[in-house]
Amino acid sequence: MELSPVQVRVLGSLIEKERATPENYPLTMNGLLAACNQSTSRYPVVNLNEPTVESALLNLRADGLLRVVHSRSNRADRYRHVLDEALALAEAELAVLGVLMLRGSQTAAELRTRTERLHRFADQEEVERVLDALAGRPEPLVARLGRAPGQKEPRWAHLLGGEVADVAPPVAPDPSARSSRSERLDALESTVAVLTAELERLRTEHDALAAQLRSLLS
Predict the structure, then answer these.
(1) For residue 162, what pLDDT is reported?
(2) I want to staple 126 with a disulfide (CB 3.0 to 4.6 A). Which of 75, 87, 116, 121 is the partner?
(3) CA quadruple 170, 171, 177, 179: dihedral sign
(4) Whole-number average pLDDT of the chain
C-alpha cells in the first residue's frame, strides 16, 4: 500500500472523528476539510483545498478504503473509511495507526496519551504489544525507528505511504499536559465544521425554495 500524504491525512482524520465525535460521523466535505486542516493534534499542519481532498477521496474509494454515504435529500454526501475492514484491523490497532497517520512518528508513551479519545489502553505495554503486532504482519503496517533527540524511547512510524514516514514534531516537555486543551480545541473545530455544513444545507434549501417561488409567480 502506497498512499499519498493527502490520502493518509484524509484517512487519519476519518479514523479520528469516527471515534472522537461519532455524532458528526460520517463526515461531509466541509467537516473533512476542517478535520484535515486542524491546527491541533496534527503534524505537519496543512491547508488542503476541496479539489485536492476530492481527488484523494476518489482514489481511496477506487482502492476500496473509503465509501460514500449518499443523501436522498438535499443534504451533502458524507464519507467514511473502511480501512479496518480492508486490513482486518482491531479497534486498538486502528486507533494507533490513525494517530501515527495524523501526527508522524511517536513513542509508545506518546501514543498511549494521544489515543485516549479513540481507544483506552490499560498501560504502555499494551500499546507496545499492538505496535509489535502491526509490525509483525506479513506486510508490516508500522516500523520501529531510533530515538529522537531528548527522548529515551524508540519511535514508531506507519508504512501506509510505502516508506517509513519518519516525521516527528518537536519534542514537548510533557505531552500529556496539553492533551485536555487540545481535546477542547478539537471539539470546537468539529462543532464549527458541523455548523458550517448545516448552514450550507440551509442555504441550498433556501435557494431551491426561492427558485420554486419565482417559477410559480412567473
Answers:
(1) 81
(2) 121
(3) positive
(4) 87
What is the dihedral sign for C-alpha 34, 185, 94, 68? Answer: negative
Contact 142, 95 (CB under 8 A): no
Higher local confidence (pLDDT), 62 or 1: 62
pLDDT of residue 175: 47
Sign of CA dihedral 172, 19, 74, 63: positive
Cα–Cα distance between 104 and 55 in angstroms, integer?
A: 22
Locus of grid cell 508504512: 159
Contacts of 135 (CB under 8 A, 6+ apart): 141, 142, 143, 144, 156
Q: Which residues of 141-171 are buried (b: 16+ CB within 10 A; e: fewer)?
A: bbbbbeebeeeeeebbbbbbbeeebebbbee
The set of cell numbers assigned to 191 is 462543532
Q: Residue 66: helix, strand or coil by DSSP?
A: strand
